[in-house]
């Protein structure tokens, strides 16, 4: 069970590092207020209305600005993964030092084998309980 948990945790941490360092862009094409196309990896397909000539008749009005628009959202990943110990504040450095000191001392063995009941004598047995109840270990 522990091996499976370690494998799952390592895959999760590797995917977190991958997605935080990866940068990508989302392209979107709008016609008016409605979304026509969006793309993660390629350029978006346009609806073709931006290539039309603007209408300059008096009845329709002047439309100098096209109704279509393209937007792009970019998400930049981290370029530097390695942070140095010098960037930590004094409080953070003190925490790291005390954590490692207590963690290393956690596994330190005892100097002598302590027996907590060595000063007590065992109780005096008057009768053999197993023989009274006739229960024997086989």
Which geometry do the CA atoms define? elongated
Task: Please compute the radius of gyration using only Cα atoms.
Answer: 37 Å
Q: How far is the first residue's CA from the last residue's CA?
A: 35 Å
Structural class: alpha+beta
Major beta sheet summary: 3 strands, antiparallel
The overall pLDDT average reads 79
Beta-strand percent range: 15-25%
Q: How are the strands ordered across the major sheet? A: 2-1-3
The string of secondary-structure elements, in order, is: HEEEHH
The overall strand count is 3
**DSSP summary: helix tally:** 3
Helix content: 25-40%
- Poorly predicted spans: none
Molecular structure report:
This protein has 138 residues and is of the alpha+beta class. The chain is 30% helix and 16% strand. The protein contains 3 helices and 3 strands. It has helices at 2-21, 90-106, 129-133, and strands spanning 24-31, 34-39, 68-75. Strands 2-1-3 form a 3-stranded antiparallel β-sheet, with no helix packed on it. Strand 1 and strand 2 form a beta hairpin. The chain is elongated, with a radius of gyration of 37 Å. The model has no long low-confidence stretch (mean pLDDT 79).
Structure keywords:
138 residues, alpha+beta, three-stranded antiparallel beta sheet, 3 strands, elongated
Summarize the entry for a quick read.
The model has no long low-confidence stretch (mean pLDDT 79). A hairpin with a 2-residue loop joins strand 1 (24-31) and strand 2 (34-39). The chain has 138 residues and is an alpha+beta fold.
């Amino acid at each position: 069970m522990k091996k499976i948990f370690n494998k799952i945790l390592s895959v999760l941490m590797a995917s977190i590092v991958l997605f935080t360092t990866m940068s990508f862009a989302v392209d979107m094409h709008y016609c008016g207020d409605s979304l026509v196309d969006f793309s993660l990896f390629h350029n978006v397909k346009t609806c073709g209305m931006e290539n039309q000539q603007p209408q300059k008749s008096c009845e329709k009005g002047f439309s100098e600005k096209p109704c279509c628009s393209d937007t792009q959202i970019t998400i930049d990943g981290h370029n530097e993964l390695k942070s140095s110990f010098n960037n930590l504040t004094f409080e953070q450095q003190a925490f790291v030092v005390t954590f490692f000191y207590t963690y290393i001392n956690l596994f330190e063995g005892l100097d002598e084998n302590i027996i907590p009941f060595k000063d007590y004598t065992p109780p005096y047995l008057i009768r053999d309980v197993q023989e009274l109840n006739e229960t024997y270990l086989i």
